[in-house]
């Protein structure tokens, strides 16, 4: 099995384990490269992902859908999550975070103690902070 296939299977497994409802995938730069390199839109829609968004851009409020954030655990990224789940003005119904690497304790504690914490269903370190390239 190729490295790309392993990454593809791991990501799809993570998406599958979240739930079988339509959701939004919010990506940072690494998450965007990982998914575009290993997954097709068919893969995503087969796992109930209806929309893919860039965490750095202004996004539309979709309060009836849950969001999966696939990202590196950075202070900037976590601040963007806080902004997305700021009190009653949240962008999404629930929050699922898949960090591509280990989350520092201070960021973990900040997330858990924030207003976003009460909407969080998943917080997981998937340990895949790399881009799988293979020769053709």
Automatic annotation (TrEMBL):
Pfam families: Sec1
Gene3D superfamilies, sorted: 3.40.50.2060
Domain of life the protein comes from: Eukaryota
A single GO BP: vesicle-mediated transport
Family label: Belongs to the STXBP/unc-18/SEC1 family.
UniProt protein name: Munc18-2
